[in-house]
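Support request, please re-run this one:
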Amino acid sequence: MPEICALTQATPFSDAERDAVYKAIHTRRDVRDQFLPDAIPDEVLNKLLNAAHHAPSVGFMQPWNFIILRAQEDRDRIWQAFSRANEEAAEMFSGDRQATYRSLKLEGIRKAPVNICVTCDRTRGGEVVLGRTHNRDMDLYSTVCAIQNLWLAARAEGIGMGWVSIFHDADLRTLLNIPKRIAIVGYLCLGYVDELYEQPELEVKGWARRTPLEDLIFEGKWQGEP
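Re-run finished. Output below.
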């Protein structure tokens, strides 16, 4: 018989603790270019990864792995794959939109001292996983929760993070020797920063604005177009 652990009281956080959680959420930014060259100490990086590893996961399957890249030559190879895909992405926009896209500085891969590729092993936990019986993508959602944990922990440590999504999946698989059964969920750039945008960078630079929360809340049922 497995040992039964005692429950602990779910006491509310103190005002200071609660404020710190909300501060991390509201001041988290997607950092693209402002990274400092300072190395992230191993003990700090392990704290961030441990925060990620404590994310919720369906069926407690913990489907994530973290591929750490620190060598400049490795990051340069990843950047070359990104650069090819980024040029393709730029061509998908036109006019002022394309000019704005090209003006965005996307140098995190080469500037950030640590890159992390986060993957999801969709076979972990076996064929039938508690909680994933009717939604096969719950393992992917769990891995995204791990990334969010890592992001908020990084913010608390004064470390910026950027999520790079402009890749051909096959390029990353080849460069990082990732098996076909493994899903690539996120490619992250991490490094210390000395300043962050007060608002999301894409909002500051006129790409988009935050949608008012009241426009996104429905009561009881869907209230938009069917």
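The chain has one domain: 29-128+139-210. Residues 59 and 129 are 6 Å apart (CA to CA).
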